[in-house]
Amino acid sequence: MMLILATSFFTTSLVSTAQAADSDASSSANFATWSAVAKAIDAKLASGQTAYKSGDNAGAAADFQSAQWSTYESANFGKVVNDTIGADKYQSQTQQFQDLQTSAYTAGKEADLAAKVSKLTADLDSTASTLDANAKLAKPAEYAKQRAEQTAKERKALDAKKKKNDGKGDRTWVQVADEMTPILDDAYKAYADGDGAKGAELVNNAYYQYYEKLGFEKNVMNAIGGNRVSQVEYQFKECRQAMNNGEPLKDAKKYIDDLKAMLKEDAQKLDGGAQVNGVTKFITSSVGQAFLVLIREGLEALLVVAAIIAYLVKSDNRKFVKWIYLGVLAGLVGSGIIAVIFGLLFGGSGPVQEIMEGVCALVAMAMLLWTSNWMLNKSSVEAWNRYIRNKTESAVAAAHDAHVANTTTMGTVVSLAMLSFLAVFREGAETVIFYESIYSMSQDSKGMWIGGIAAAVVLVIVFLLIRFTSVKIPIGPFFLVTSILMSVLVVIFAGGGVHALIEGDALSGMYLQGVPTNDWLGFYPYVETIVAQVLAAIAVLALFAVGFAKQRKRKAQAALETK
């Protein structure tokens, strides 16, 4: 259910963004002159004044806000004022809009509000006349088109620069922080020049291409603490939101300055020798994560395949084992195809990448929830043996009939191969999802290859021991413990997935000051992440309760049958 909601929200967000962009473009195209834009703003200001007189303070504030953002900024009036007349005039007019929005909530000030509306209206009309008289200045529609083309060009150049960032290399963390400083300064400059979108994009560049991609974030988390990472991440978000929402310049400047100070302080601590625990360093490294993920996922698939083969051998059907191996091969190929598809889906960068990571984590959460419940239901030896026997006997029966007739039909091959294919493909698909998340965070393909190959070697050894010796893995404890661990992962992924959506600005995020961060548990100081984890925990506990109730019922029935 959470996956459906997340996907729906993601789709709705994209549609809303597209509609907003279309609205902005059409708002400029609908005005023939800058005076026409001013008149449209005047009308909304007058509507706000009327609402205020009738006692509708919230409606008045909404009208004044709409006058500023839906027309003044959307139709590029403010941008043109800033570029052609000056930043002082632009700041004066935006401040007047802000004053009206504040005054709207103060009752009994009709004369004062009317004076402010009259002053701003006269200012806008005079400014519009000056703009229309400028022969070098394009009309609203043409100006909007030129600005869109220029923005696209700048973003293309910015994307080209992003690709040149190959990693931290031999630079110190202080040097990395120093490289981020001019990017953040440029972000503020762009915002001060009236281009909030460009400013927010530069802030994203500093975050995704430096703080996250170069490992600044992960090192701060390991050496300083998760709380600090959450504070810095929220500071990045404050900077973006200030520029996207048109907050006063002094506030945006403070957000940027505070962020630069935080980055420099953390960089100095990292360069000063802040130590990371060895075990923690291994587990949080790409090598350790790739190793552990493949061991966990591969061991489950290995147990299923080994059990099926053991049953075939024990039941005198050794001749069909080759089809089981064929299914394993097909499962590996299918997992490879899934890996290619995910590689294409994760080709984005910045917020898009973050949102994809969030959706991916929620998909993994849903898969883990189902798998942990499945494993809990197989946590007794009797249930496991019954599962393997039921799955295998029907396939063997059809295969045996074909063998007696000296024919090996496609149905025979498929029925036997499907047994091992489903086991390997499911675990392989999960591994691909987890590996994609690891790579998107670490960008360390070499480390992942080392961890993955090491895990594969261990799995092959374990399989050979199970297949050709008397070594047995205790099924009951294995599935019970693994089910509990996977249930914990469900809760962790729920928090991590929603947190990634917040980082990608797909969710606004209600930050809780002072609440601790624990990246290991996917616990972050946001209302949305905490609610997601509570819901996931409730789902896990409910499934555990149902699973144990079923097991108790089966045991009771078995006891009655033996009497």
Structure overview:
This protein is mostly helical and 563 residues long. It has 3 domains: 27-154; 173-271; 283-392 and 410-562, no CATH class. Helix content is 81%, strand content 0%. The chain has 21 helices and no strands. α1 packs across α7, α5 packs antiparallel against α6 (110-132) and α20 (475-503) runs antiparallel to α21. The longest helix is centred in the last third of the chain and has 36 residues, at 527-562. The radius of gyration is 31 Å and the shape is elongated. Residues 1-29, 162-166 and 402-409 have low confidence and may be disordered. This is Iron permease. Residues 1-20 form the signal peptide. It comes from Bifidobacterium primatium. GO terms for molecular function: ferrous iron transmembrane transporter activity. Residues 148-170 are annotated as: Disordered.
Topology pattern, helix = H, strand = E: HHHHHHHHHHHHHHHHHHHHH
Helix fraction bin = over 70%
* Through-space gap between termini: 44 Å
The poorly predicted ranges are 1-29, 162-166, 402-409
Number of domains: 3
Region (Disordered): 148-170
Protein name: Iron permease
Signal peptide: 1-20
Organism: Bifidobacterium primatium
